[in-house]
């Protein structure tokens, strides 16, 4: 957690002459190492724990899946693919270890190589590229156990599909503006809050949101 806070702080500071490039690379490497260790610990200990929490298998093996669409229209500037997969795919792997489900990012924008994505679109086994960006969660187990696993995985993935407040410091001003405007719309009460786009053009740690009574 402290490493992530350090990275956010460094990202917010002016990078004169690229002096932070080396430090940022070292931070990324350390974050990746810690996450890998956490993933290995989870992988070693979560399987037995997960199995002990499940009921005894009843009936034949079933294959279940659920598709969760990524809200790219609501948050067009947010890197959902990176957040779901994590560095070197460790976030997705950790979720798979914890839930017993397979988690895959599919649809438009799911591939890092956009040129290759265009080349594969329309080909057999690549039909998902014609769909909107989504997360495909699959599981294979007895029906009663598969339903529990799938429900857990869906709950965890849904948490990744809503940008957290801490993520705002890594977002563009336009995204912050859209998030705030959407949040104000959902607020109940007689006060109409307006956010002016020009107020979002300053640094993340200096941003001021102007609220006016309508």
In summary, what is this structure?
This protein is mainly alpha-helical and 214 residues long. Helix content is 46%, strand content 11%.
Following the backbone from N to C, one meets helices and strands in this order, namely HHEHHEHEHH
Please name the CATH architecture of the largest domain. Answer: 2-Layer Sandwich
Q: Strands of the largest sheet, in order across it? A: 1-3-2
Number of helices: 7
Distance between the first and last residues' Cα: 40 Å
- Stretches where pLDDT falls below 50 for ≥5 residues? 189-195, 197-214
Q: Tell me the domain tally.
A: 2
Approximately what portion of the residues adopt beta-strand conformation? 5-15%
Helix content: 40-55%
Q: Globular, elongated, flat, extended or rod-shaped: what is the shape? A: globular
Round the mean pLDDT to the nearest integer and report it.
74
Biggest sheet overview? 3 strands, antiparallel
CATH class of the largest domain: Alpha Beta
Describe the structure.
The protein has helices at 2-12, 21-53, 80-85, 90-99, 114-120, 143-160, 173-186; strands at residues 61-69, 102-106, 134-142. It is mainly alpha-helical. α2 (21-53) runs parallel beside α4. The two termini are 40 Å apart. 16% of the residues are buried.
Keywords:
214 residues, mainly alpha, Ribosomal Protein S8, Chain: A, domain 1, 2 domains, 3-stranded antiparallel β-sheet, globular, disordered C terminus, RNA-binding
SSE topology:
Layout: H1 2-12, H2 21-53, E1 61-69, H3 80-85, H4 90-99, E2 102-106, H5 114-120, E3 134-142, H6 143-160, H7 173-186
Antiparallel strand pairs: 1-3, 2-3
Helix pairs in contact: 1-2, 2-4, 4-6
């Amino acid at each position: 957690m402290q490493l992530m806070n350090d990275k956010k702080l460094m990202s917010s500071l002016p990078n004169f002459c690229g002096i932070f490039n080396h430090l940022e690379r070292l931070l990324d490497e350390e974050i990746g190492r810690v996450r890998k260790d956490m993933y290995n610990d989870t992988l070693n200990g979560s399987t037995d724990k997960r199995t002990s929490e499940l009921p005894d298998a009843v009936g034949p093996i079933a294959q279940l899946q659920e598709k969760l669409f990524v809200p790219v229209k609501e948050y067009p500037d947010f890197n959902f693919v990176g957040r779901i997969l994590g560095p070197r795919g460790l976030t997705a792997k950790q979720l798979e270890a914890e839930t017993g489900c397979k988690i895959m990012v599919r649809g438009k924008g799911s591939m890092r190589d956009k040129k290759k994505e265009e080349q594969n679109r329309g080909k057999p086994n690549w039909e998902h590229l014609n769909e909107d960006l989504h997360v495909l969660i699959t599981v294979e187990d007895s029906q009663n156990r598969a339903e529990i696993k799938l429900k857990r995985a869906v709950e965890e993935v849904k948490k990744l599909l809503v940008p957290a407040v801490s993520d705002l410091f890594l977002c563009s001003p336009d995204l912050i503006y859209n998030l705030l405007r959407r949040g104000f719309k959902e607020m109940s009460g007689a006060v109409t809050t307006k956010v002016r786009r020009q107020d979002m053009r300053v640094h993340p740690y200096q941003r001021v949101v102007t609220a006016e009574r309508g």
